[in-house]
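#onboarding

Welcome to the new folks! Below is a worked example of what a typical request in this channel looks like: someone posts a single protein sequence, and someone else replies with the predicted structure as tokens. Don't worry about understanding the tokens yet, we'll cover that in week two.

Example request:
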Amino acid sequence: MKCHQTGKLYVLSLCDDIATHPEGAWVEHWQPRPGFDQPQRKLSFMMPVPGSPYQVAADVFDETTTMEQLNKISRRK
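Example response:
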């Protein structure tokens, strides 16, 4: 899946990030959103499922939360 603004494959970026952050990783990308003329900022989070070969991912449209804020709350131990 590609970012509509940069053309980068953001899912590959998430996979690379969870290799160094097994507690999970966030990535910002831009995607079409119903009701908007231009792609909107979307944030995706991925983390490994403990004891399995799987990862789980979720995303949300968000214009205000910084990546720093997201990393801070998701990397708590």
